[in-house]
Amino acid sequence: GDLFLEVHIANHRHYRLEDNHILLDLPITPWEAALGAKVTVPTLAGKITLSIPPGARSGQKMRLKGRGLPSKPSGDQFVILQLTNPPVSNQKAKQFYQQMASELKFNPRKTIEQL
């Protein structure tokens, strides 16, 4: 007769699996998101350099074709950008945030507040 095996793959600290695709949450700074950047990303085959486009958003998915689990067809690796703010750890950092708040006049909830 045939032997059927069911394989369970344990969760990893940084990676998740969806079918044969690998997902990685990648922390990025606000300036990397706003200005664009080149960052190092780990893959199953080793580290690569990923170009983050200017104006990137938190939650944005970037696809690394063929870098997922080996199968037919091969899976992809998806890098999900996670915007991470630096801590307000001293007075200078606090003043910098206050300056940005007064000069940029940015309200990310503008459309919600109109409901």
Ordered list of secondary-structure elements with their pairings:
Layout: E1 15-18, E2 21-28, H1 30-35, E3 37-43, E4 46-52, E5 61-64, E6 77-83, H2 91-104, H3 110-113
Parallel strand pairs: 2-6
Antiparallel strand pairs: 1-2, 3-4, 5-6
Task: Explain the overall architecture.
- With 115 residues, the chain is an alpha+beta fold.
- A hairpin with a 2-residue loop joins β3 (37-43) and β4.
- The strands form two sheets. The chain has a four-stranded mixed β-sheet with strand order 1-2-6-5.
- It has three helices and six strands, in the order ββαββββαα.
- It is 21% helix and 32% strand.
- It has a domain at 15-86: Urease metallochaperone UreE, N-terminal domain (HSP40/DNAj peptide-binding domain, Sandwich), CATH 2.60.260.20.
- The radius of gyration is 20 Å and the shape is elongated.
Indicate the low-confidence ranges by residue numbers: none
| H and E string | EEHEEEEHH
Work out the radius of gyration: 20 Å
Describe the strand arrangement of the main beta sheet, using strand numbers.
1-2-6-5
The assigned CATH architecture of one domain is Sandwich
Task: Look at the structure and name the CATH superfamily of one domain.
Answer: Urease metallochaperone UreE, N-terminal domain
Defining traits:
single chain, about 120 residues, alpha+beta, HSP40/DNAj peptide-binding domain, four-stranded mixed β-sheet, two-stranded antiparallel sheet, 3 helices, about 20% helix
Précis, in short:
The chain has helices at 30-35, 91-104, 110-113; strands spanning 15-18, 21-28, 37-43, 46-52, 61-64, 77-83. With 115 residues, it is an alpha+beta fold.
